[in-house]
Amino acid sequence: METETIIETTNLTKRYGHQTAVNGLNLKVKEGEIFGFLGPNGAGKTTTLLMLLGLSRPSKGHATVCGLNPLRMAREVKRHVGYLPENVGFYEDMDAVQSLEYVADLNGLKKVEAREKIDELLGLVGLKDQAGKKTAAFSRGMKQRLGVAEVLIKDPEVLFLDEPTLGLDPEGAIQLINLIQSLNEEKEITVLLSSHNLHQVQKMSHRVGIMIDGSLIAEGSIDSLAEEKFGVGEKEYSLEEIYMKYFQEA
Amino acid sequence: MQGLYAVFKKELQDHLSSYRFVILFALIAMVSFITSYMAAVHMRENLEGLASTRFPFLMLFSTPGAMFSMVQFVAFFGPLIGLILGFDAINRERTQGTLIKVISQPIYRDAVINGKFLAGVTTIAVMLVAIVLVISGFGLAFVGVVPGVEEIWRLFIYLIISIFYISFWLGLAILFSILFKSIATSSLASVALWIFLSFFISLGAEVVANTVAPIDRKNEVQPEVVLENARIKELVSLSSPMILYSNATATIIDPMRKTTRSLILMGPMEELLSARFQSPLPLGQSIVIVFPHIIALIAITLICFAISYVVFMLQEVRT
Ligand SMILES: Nc1ncnc2c1ncn2[C@@H]1O[C@H](COP(=O)(O)OP(=O)(O)OP(=O)(O)O)[C@@H](O)[C@H]1O
Ligand SMILES: [Mg+2]
């Protein structure tokens, strides 16, 4: 595995009034890995992703993504990074294809190029049959799939996925996990994903970070975290057990 | 640029295919058809036997038929076009969660607001040009008046001023859609401000003028006081974009008018001049007279947009 650092934050802090959403975060994500971002509601995961994209201004500290400062080079960063927001929205009067075309347009893709890409992506996320349906008539899971397709249009090097499997049926979730893994393996896309589903995170992540109340309290591979909490032993601990242990001690 | 064009194209398509555009357009087309029809009938009756009027074509727009002229109609209800096109520009995208998606694409953030504003302005221009053309065609066919070169110029300038005027309201509506998260609030706020600026200011101007320089009707009326009263009234009412616009277009569309000022404020020579010489003002002179009004109108439009721009750029977008 490559060891180049692709995302790095130093003392990254975000305050809303007197509330600290992210507190002195030092995070390193290596190129080509799948990094699982864990933490209870309100821990500051989404806020961190927004700052990494240059959509939110840090109160203190700074971040580097693909060697760029997202605050100054927001547009360049967004060229490399695909971001799936936690509640992705769509223009209701557009169908799936039109919605994808608009995103392709915003990314400066040529018409022909975009058409091929859209066709391919609709197949990839399993929405071929719904291509002409208005997004207003989409179910939660179908929207999530369309969101994933939109993120992939720009051929990203890095993916930020904020709770990507939320609302997907078990089969859809497994498909998406497989898709993320294959993108990671074949196209060497780095993935930073936040999720509350620990089984899924355990299944795909190379490393995880646990964030509580704006601070990163643990970071590393699942094995190394288990070792830290339970010591070396025969038993394999699940991520759930490890997470709960960290959570109780925090 | 690529982002700006993409947003512009999408927004323009949305506008032109939306029900609100169709309804607005139908309404305005209907009213302009009726008013110009009235004007045409009026002209036919009154111009019969007259050797020639200098600007018969412009009269189609400036003659109040039964209720109001085309020009007055745009002054009153033009703002509604701007408001309707802009009141939910940003907050609708916020509530449906598309704003974050759009600005996490590789575009500059200002492409969103610039694209939306430009698309709105283009829609307004399309609407106004279409209406002017319809009325012109109607005038040609029904009354048989042919526009002269100067009349075409005047109409053109009138169109430009009108586009700025309605764009001011568009900018205002977009500003409210940025400031207020709820669509209901932003629409209410923009309509409230429209009613206030358009209808209450003239009332308020009267009140202010009468408080500052009350005209004592019981005793002998002093001319200075009357003058002062009129001057204050005019000054205050200029803070209404509608009055600003009416003044700006007045001498453009009606060459016989030589000043934007009320009769009472004219100097004796000026009064003499306008009474003695019933000849139309040349185009250049018409423009000179309303130049400050035009500049003021353009300025408030740009300022309004600049404020929306800054507020939007500084706002945090989470949805
Ligand atoms: N606009 C805002 N104003 C004030 N506080 C905010 C604002 N947005 C977020 N916060 C606060 O910041 C903190 C972090 O929120 P964030 O959305 O990053 O959490 P999260 O880890 O993504 O949670 P979840 O798992 O529920 O998605 C929360 O305490 C939240 O209340
Ligand atoms: Mg979140």
TrEMBL record, chain A:
Name the SMART domains on file: AAA
Q: Which InterPro entries match?
A: AAA+_ATPase, ABC_transporter-like_ATP-bd, P-loop_NTPase
Q: Name one GO molecular function term.
A: ATP hydrolysis activity
Keywords, ordered alphabetically: ATP-binding, Nucleotide-binding, Transport
**Keyword Translocase tagged:** no
Which family is annotated?
Belongs to the ABC transporter superfamily.
Q: Which named protein is this?
A: ABC transporter ATP-binding protein
**Organism whose genome encodes this protein:** Candidatus Desulfacyla euxinica
- What is the organism lineage in this UniProt record? Bacteria, Deltaproteobacteria, Candidatus Desulfacyla
Automatic annotation (TrEMBL), chain B:
Give the domain of life. Answer: Bacteria
GO cellular component term of the entry, any: plasma membrane
Tell me the keywords, alphabetical order.
Answer: Membrane, Transmembrane, Transmembrane helix
Provide the coiled-coil residue spans: none
Locate the transmembrane regions by residue number. Answer: 21-40, 60-87, 117-143, 155-179, 191-213, 287-312
Q: Does the keyword Transmembrane apply?
A: yes
Query: What is the protein name for this chain?
Result: ABC transporter permease
Spell out the PANTHER family in the cross-references.
Answer: ABC TRANSPORTER PERMEASE, ABC-2 TYPE TRANSPORT SYSTEM PERMEASE PROTEIN
Tell me a Gene Ontology molecular-function term this record carries: ABC-type transporter activity
Q: Which organism is it from?
A: Candidatus Desulfacyla euxinica
